[in-house]
Amino acid sequence: MYSGIQPATQAAIKHEPIIVVGHRNPDNDSISAAIGYARLKNILDPDNSYIPYRLGPLPHESEYVLDRYGIRHPEVLTHIHCRICDVMTPNPLQIPESATMREAAEKLKQHNIRTLVVHDEKGLYRGIIDTTTFANLYLSELDDVDATVQTRFTTLARPVSDFLYSESMVLDCEDILNEAREQVLASTLRQAVVVDDTGRATGIVTRTDLAHTPRRRIILVDHNESSQAVSGIHEAEVVGIVDHHRIGDIQTTTPIQFINLPYGSSASIVALEYQRNGVEIEPKYAAVLLSALLTDTVLLKSPTTTLGDHQIAETLAKAAGLDINTFGRELFEARFAGQDGSVESIVLADSKVFTQGDTNFMISAYETVNTDSILEKEQEIVEFLEGMVKRNGYEFALVLITDIMREGSQFIIAGRTKGVEHSFGISFGDKHSVWVPGILSRKKQVVPRLML
Ligand SMILES: [Mn+2]
Known about the structure:
- By secondary structure, the chain is α/β, with parallel strands linked by helices.
- The protein has three domains: 18-80 and 216-338, inorganic pyrophosphatase (n-terminal core); 86-211, CBS-domain (Roll); 343-450, Diaminopimelate Epimerase, Chain A, domain 1, CATH 3.10.310.20.
- It is 37% helix and 22% strand.
- The protein contains 16 helices and 18 strands.
- It has helices spanning 28-44, 60-68, 84-87, 101-111, 131-141, 148-157, 177-186, 266-276, 283-296, 307-320, 324-338, 343-348, 371-375, 378-392, 418-424, 442-450, and strands spanning 18-24, 50-55, 75-76, 89-90, 94-96, 115-119, 125-130, 169-171, 191-195, 201-206, 217-221, 237-243, 257-260, 351-356, 359-368, 396-403, 408-415, 433-437.
- The strands form four sheets. The chain has a six-stranded parallel beta sheet. A five-stranded mixed beta sheet has the order 14-15-16-17-18. A four-stranded mixed beta sheet has the order 4-10-9-8.
- A hairpin with a 5-residue loop joins strand 6 and strand 7 (125-130).
- Helix 1 (28-44) runs parallel beside helix 8 (266-276), helix 8 (266-276) runs antiparallel to helix 9 (283-296) and helix 9 (283-296) crosses helix 11 (324-338).
- The two termini are 42 Å apart.
- Residues 1-10 have low confidence and may be disordered.
- Bound molecules: manganese (II) ion.
- The site of manganese (II) ion has 6 residues, from loops.
């Protein structure tokens, strides 16, 4: 049985699924490790539900593998801020507007609640009736002592539509809590109603519900730096990390299972977790993980590749019934067939921002088998990079055009070049581009030298 450290859940949203997601501008490893790890966690921890997401477009090779094995594409996660649906009380008690005030009063009493949502004959939201409605009615009756009994009788026979508050605040389930809170607290209303796209009330939010911000739970794969993580990460409860990059700046309030190993892919570590937990991996998930291992290690050629990666690749290939070389070739064919070759995609398809001290810099990685065709666009790429440097105040922006056949990278740069030149013993001269043989890995061969 699984004996990993359980996350603290005090402030977490327990009924909500746990999100498993890779970094921004996802590569195949971020997609595949999230899918493979969510699958494993769902097997190990059936009390919770783990759902893989992605933080950007699906890489072509991921699409190829997922479609080949009939696995659903993960959905895009736009942020992990706490939402209205994370704090609302779902399925509020409702009453039709044609019901009498007596029925409304009985329903409030029977369920010991303060608010009823009123809907029309089509089930669409109309307004609310609450205990204050009744209190106000009886207070007004006090002015007319003789008529009290008669008035009350008449009032209770009238439909709720005569009394409902229709000006009550309406929110959307996906509204960000911190923003909605200000609206509600600035009003005099005791609650807001959550209405869906079809006009039906799906929840109710009271002032008390708004008093705290519960944390949504998330597992990070293939990254552990907030600059690469989903928006709102500081509001979330990170309950696990599976990564093979340098230790970044993600902080947690409690101990978590943080697995960081210098393997060639996060997918390799996920595969190890299947082994460690004695879970046999299904063929299609073995194929997904193998695809990420092969793309992240550039067909096991990158210097990030360890002996362990070779062994895991063999194991996964066997489980999936695949030949490593054939599958690897298919993956890169799918990737290169999908490349549109635009300057924007060359620079942005796999770009990461790094922080050192007060400076930020961007490094993009782009793999190809045809560096020459990229170099025809060198001037445009440099102009694009210069724009990014200017807009974002980067120290520099660097694109690595890695030719997996020639086994080296063309460095194309804008901004301050000194640090890069010094770290690699190269010179751009009056150009913005230079070929650096043997450089295949941003993570292992480029980032560490720049972080010294
Ligand atoms: Mn990776």
